[in-house]
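ugh ok so i messed up the first submission bc i forgot one of the chains. this is the corrected input, ALL of the components this time, i swear. 1269 residues overall. if the numbers dont match what u have on ur side tell me asap before i send this to the collaborators (the ones from the other lab, u know who)
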Amino acid sequence: MSGVVSSEAHKPATERRTNHGRGFLIVLIAAITVVVPLLLPLTAYDLNLSMQAATYAVAVVGLTIVLGYTGQINLAQAAFFGLGAYSVALGTVSFGLPFWLALFAGIAIASIAGVVLGLTSLRLGGHYLAMVTISFQQILTLVLTNWILLTRGPDGIWGIARPIVFGFSFADGGTYLALCVGALWMVGFCVERLKHSKLGRAMQAVRDNELAAGVVGVDTYRTKVIAFTLCALLGGLGGGLFAGGFTYISPDQFSFAESVVFLTMALLGGVRSPFGTTLGAALLILLPEWLRFLKTTYLAVYGGAVILLMVFMPEGIWGLLETLRKQVWPPAVLPVGRVAPLPLITWVGRETDSAILEINHLSKHFGGLKAVDEVELSVRRNTVHALVGPNGSGKTTLLNVLSGIYKPAKGRLLFDGQDVTGLLPHERAKRGIGRTFQTVRLFTSMSVLENIIVGAERPGNEVAAGSTGVEQHALAALDFVRLTELREQTVQSLSYGHQRLAEIARALAGNPKLLLLDEPGAGLNTVEKGELVQLLKRLKVHGLTVLVIDHDMNLVEQVADRITVLNFGRRIADGPPAEVLRNPEVMAAYLGNVKTHGAP
Amino acid sequence: MLKRMIYQKVALAGLTVMLTCFGRAAEPLKIGIVAPLTGPAAEQGRDKIQGAKLAAEEVNKAGGVLGRPIELVIEDDQTTNPGSVLAFSKLAGDKNIPAFLGPTFSTQIHAIAPDIQRLGKPVMIGGTDPQLTHMGNPWLFRFRPNDVYSARVIADYGVNTLGKRKWAIVHSTDAFGTSGMKNVVEDLKGMGVEPALVQSYTSNSQDFTPVVLAVKQSGADVMATYMTLGVDQAIFARQLRQLGVNIAWVGSPTTVQTTALKLAGPALFGCYAAADFNADSSPAAKEFAAKFEATYKSAPDFHGAWPYDAIHVLALAIDNAKSLEPQKICEAILSVKGYPGAEGTYNFDHNGDGLHSYNVVKNDNGKIVFIKHIDFSE
Amino acid sequence: MGMALQLLFTGLGLGSIYALVALGFVLIYRATNVVNFAQGDFAMLGAFSMVVLCVDLELPYWLGILITLAAMLVFGALFNSAVYYPLRNRGFQPVIISTIGASILLENGVLAAYGPRPQTLPGFFSFPGFNVGPIFFDSQYLLILGVTVVMVTLQYFFFERTLLGKKMQATSQDKEMASLLGIPVALMIMLTFMYSSALGALAGILVAPILFVSVGMGSSIALKAFAASIIGGFGDVTGAIVGGLALGVVETFGAAYISVPYKDAFAFIVLVLFLLFRPQGLFGEKVAEKA
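and heres the new structure output, hopefully the right one now
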């Protein structure tokens, strides 16, 4: 088989056939669920329940994007739901707009609100971001309740009309339900596809390891804003459909309690998949109804059931089903065939005098501690430059300043002739700085290959466009570090040494002009270290420029062309290895005060 | 041998026929009830069911409806709008239910109104938002006087009987409070009085100090209130007294609702209220109160009174109509005139409003004293 | 001027309720890195327990308090075992949902057991309060303020000066390290839950005479208390107190001078401003991620 591999075709033949079969089955089920309400006369009760389930599900699928894929908590989904619902209600009732226009307006308004909320994520995460979303939710509920002039206040709005398309009316309950279910399927399908797209991978990278994502080239802020916007968009869509379904809305239906319900639905069903979240929505709407026979205690039982489900099914119900499926139907891995060699940027031949990286007077302080103190460093092209020093000498801090994770107190960074001192991590990645971390930072929920692909998708990487090119490139990087057989494995199943290699492959896939390696030997045993040294030598042969930090002198000696030594944040030596390693100050730094015994 | 077999067969046949006849005769008539069993209004839901049950037992003792005993089928609306919709549609799916008791809260009635319209069967309601009977839905029958009348009574009593012209109006922001406020303002304007303060608050506030201070600042000598929840009523009353405000107070029926009275204690002494239900307002009310107290060991308020009336009137109407057809039941209800209920005397107008009167009552050191009955029936 | 002072007093009184509940949040968060959505319901349980003991069974007030606090200590241990412990390694989202489930369970369980009518609880003092000039000092609010001060002081001494307190602090700062030092981490966390539970119950007992006892009384306080703890600096005990008091005052003044119906919005607007411009709150530390 030639090296031409498409993103679909690289899946094994058996899985491809299963995928097609599964795809067909899903489309069939979708068609049936849409057609059933059109044909079967359902009771008002069943219709109401199903409409609620379907429209809630659309909103909850939005949470899949922002929470499942991107890992950000959103407790304002009911607010977006409400914006959509009120747009449709006010639009059709107060302003006499046609349903579709009002729905479109609702989606637009909700999306704008989502952008605003996303923008606040610039400096916040975790609980803080959750609180911003809660505040937004509470404020919106109060506005809906009290701005009576616009929203008709607590009275709510009734008489919401259902859409008419080319004379075909959706007023009938069954028909409208079919519309909602159809919308749900389309949304679910799109969101599922999103997971395997460039944006989807970027989102998952942000969730798994935001720091690494930025360094690898993902614009984390923009990704988060997009995630919130899409989530809000779906919330607005669900709300608009909900309004048309129940034909009466009031502010108390869009309160914080509802946001909590949405979140619970998502987590119970399985937040990482639109099927999971839909399942969760359906279940949490049906469960209280099934438990009605318990009369007054059913909500208490429902609360208890939530706890039990959380304890025994952490990935949600869908996660459980997926795990079972993988055990019953484990996907086989096809051999991939010959792959074009990795086109690393090189200046093969001679060591040039032009520096690719220049660090001038760099200082970084933490309070009173001068972690990096007036360091000067110059890395020449096509060399392996090592930065060494005892623990606490400021090596990693310096590297973090280089990556853009820390802002320097003083000094300038010049990369490839341009001043990059003020750039964000992903902007530096764009210029061609690649990096690995002291403790491996891979994206744990993605496979090894997907991790590399994220690296290959760095902006500014001159790779053949389209998924084929990117995948090819990623496979090439993987091949370079000799990990091709492990490409479909999850990251956690790899040995630490292999994880390290995978991280390096991810950086290489981005065609870096300069590769920063932070303690690549840390945590490796002797054998693994030997493999690492071989890899570094091969990189050197290819002419890649590398800046390595390590305190294992043995390793450094074998590969470095030049060594810079730091101690207590200051540079104490800089030059070829032979010279530096005999420097008494260096020896003193490492070994303490060495009394030279014997002859000089 | 053969004779015995024939005897047995005949006996068996006869027994079967008799049982079938009795069976059909004894088959219960289901009435659906949407009530809050859970959620913030669970206590009012319990009162509602108690009132309805009391009436149902009385009707059954007297022979039932069309010879059949009433069976109440209750669904929990969770005190929410979607909950009401689901509860009602569940009941609506049972074809054997000819009529329903709907919610007490106006906002919930609005939520299920479209479904009621689609179903086309009569629903007895307890919400006081005047709009409910003026929106073209012919299936709603109201068993409490709507807020047009309560507002009129409050304004009239305050201005004309108490002689106060500087008004503060405190109301909750929900449908009930806002519409009550609007009606009072309109009535006052009609008497040439401009309110000194109109202050709204959101239900479930835990602290009313700002509201109390606003009332104090306004210099009002009389206060009208439309408060939805008994707990809010009580906290407000307490803080009002603590901050030294003792002006005349004429409030909506919540002011003398059982929960509010129990929680507020002395803080509510001395205030007046427009109350649709009061045990001393009529012999029928007295009788109902006595029965309710005897059965459930607590005094009833309007939450239990209107369902009591509704079941009785419904039974009467179905018996008069001699049919379970929705249209016929509706006509029969509308023809009810002069029926002495616990809430008052029912004279149904063409909109479906059964009552057009209110009582003025006073909280006299904890005892609710009946002052007078004001009737607006044309 | 009189009005402003009155508002200030009421605001502080309300704020100290938020502060007490916020304390409970902060303690659990520091120990487990998780927000307990059922914190408000501890207050509700405490209040209901007092109603059962002192109103229904007519036990003396002090005995009722003792029994309630003891019972809530046990309840805290149960809560830890059932709701937190099985999920302790799963990240904070499952625990949040689990605590939400617990909240629903508790509120509706009490509803089913006790019935829906709100209850009264007599105040600790038999006199309602006293006037100084135009300002009325509600005796129960004064008690709440007083108890808050006492609790904070006691807590300070406990955590800073006793060995057990320091062990609990160590656990909350670095579980792994504490474990390596021989501190029984699971036990420390259990103790944290027990203490938070009793603290929450105390808040409920104190606030019941003012707000009356109903199943929903806890949740409405809890959210604002959570906001208060963030304004004060999440994870910081002083912050929880200051945040709570500040929130109560902001809310009351906002209601009086700007708009009563939007009263709840002020709390959240202030919170958003803090989150955008000073996320570490008034007293919190900037949290930096180690690269």
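quick check: Residues 2-125+137-277 of chain C form a domain with the ABC transporter involved in vitamin B12 uptake, BtuC fold (CATH 1.10.3470). that seems consistent at least. The longest strand of chain C covers residues 129-132.
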